[in-house]
Design a protein that fits this description.
Arc Repressor Mutant, subunit A, single chain, 6 helices, three-stranded antiparallel beta sheet
Length: 138
Amino acid sequence: MLVAKKPRDMEAPVATEQPKPRAISKRAKNNAVEALASTLDANFFKAIAEPVRQQIVLILLQEGRSNVQEVAQHLVQDRSVVSRHLAFLEQAGFVRSHRVQRFTEYELDGPAIIGKLELLLSHLRHAAQVCCPPDQLR
């Protein structure tokens, strides 16, 4: 009796031994978590969690340096409310202000925003590698 041979690509794969993942010390995990926690600025994220402040950020992106009145023209909120939102955004590091004669003008602080987000991303990547490497997620 003749038996047809299986083509080579149909043969069962041969199991290869995978290297065991290196144990990560508790100290390394704690350091990664502490570094990440130090960059999680609640006010920074709270600043853009509010829809009106999101609108203000977009207005400043579109219009550039503006005073409270100029920003308020684009919103339904009263000038005093817009002023409080701008103060919150400034305190959180999203905008910076400049006094020009009688007015205070606000503009986005791009380098500060990017710096905070890049630092957060860097610490997040490190924490993910240390605390939950891909080989441990299976």
